[in-house]
Design brief:
This protein is α+β, with helices and mostly antiparallel strands. It is built from four helices and nine strands; from the N terminus they run αβββββαβαβββα. The strands form two sheets. A seven-stranded antiparallel sheet has the order 6-8-9-3-4-5-7. A two-stranded antiparallel ribbon has the order 1-2. α1 packs antiparallel against α4.
């Protein structure tokens, strides 16, 4: 399995314009009959198919987060893209603030410099379960925040956001479809309580092209908070003091791979082999 991972990574770089080889995606909790593998890029499905009504992961529906402490976290995109092959530097930020009544989080999204939607879009963005490492490698953020282990085999059912991955902001609230993207919305299934498995304040935001290539990413950092504590509604998922990664095997090749992707892929492959 590990040698296959390395071969998948290297073959992708030999054919930069090609899609990645199909690799098993361990973020999928169950594989339907006759579907042994699905194509992925950097651990994300290239195509996740149409929504399946009522589909959830082993953890069932996401829990509405109540009693959130008053706090705000912001992720500001860096001045350079992780993958620059689109020819446009994405700038801006996303800020999440506990709703006034403590239920859910209100997000303000302000992105600019989005590449050509016709050529590379529509674009999706997610909260990923780990922060961006110091070298800026967006692949290091691993998989989406997903306390219920829903996985990505089926697309998010937008009218039923409780069935979606908690970190799938685009799936629940809409893809990026314009060069400047400004939108605000409330998400009931994310938390400002560090003890909740739905807490996003120590995680990251990643923007993807339509083929799942990671274009840019940034860490959430604390803007403001109160000293009060409260109990946030959450699932039975065990919570640790720092983010931990789910098992992850990413197909490192991308349709327009940049140097950052190459370095990250080789490092990831080497880590699994060693």
């Amino acid at each position: 399995m590990y040698s296959r991972l390395l071969l998948s990574a290297l073959s992708g770089f030999a054919f930069v314009s090609a899609q990645s080889e199909a690799t098993p995606n361990p973020t999928i909790p169950t594989i339907p009959t006759n579907t042994a593998e699905v194509p992925t890029i950097e651990g994300a499905l290239v195509y996740d198919g149409p929504p399946v009504i009522g589909y959830t992961g082993p953890g069932g529906n996401a829990s509405v987060q109540t009693g959130n402490p008053a706090a705000s976290y912001i992720a500001v995109l860096p001045p350079t893209n992780f993958d620059s092959a689109t020819g446009s530097i994405i700038t801006g930020s996303i800020e999440g603030t506990a709703s006034a009544d403590g239920t859910g989080v209100t997000f303000s999204v302000n992105f600019a410099g989005i590449p050509s939607v016709a050529e590379f879009g529509p674009f999706v963005y997610h909260i990923h379960e780990l922060p961006v490492p110091s070298d800026g490698n967006c692949t290091g953020t691993m998989a989406h925040l997903d306390p219920t282990q829903r996985g990505e085999l089926h697309a998010c059912e937008t009218p039923a956001p409780q069935t979606c991955q908690a970190g799938d902001l685009a799936g629940k609230h809409g893809n990026i479809t314009a060069s400047t993207w400004t939108v605000s919305y409330s998400d009931l299934f994310l938390s400002t309580n560090p003890s909740s498995p739905y807490f996003f304040g120590d995680k990251s935001i990643v923007i993807h092209s339509s083929n799942a290539t990671r274009l840019t990413c940034a860490n959430f950092t604390l803007v403001s908070s109160t000293n009060s504590t409260s109990n946030s509604t959450s699932s039975n998922t065990t919570v640790s003091s720092s983010p931990t990664a789910s098992p992850f095997i990413g197909a490192a090749a991308t349709t327009f791979a940049g140097a950052g992707v190459l370095a990250g892929a080789l490092a990831l492959a080497a880590a699994f082999i060693l």
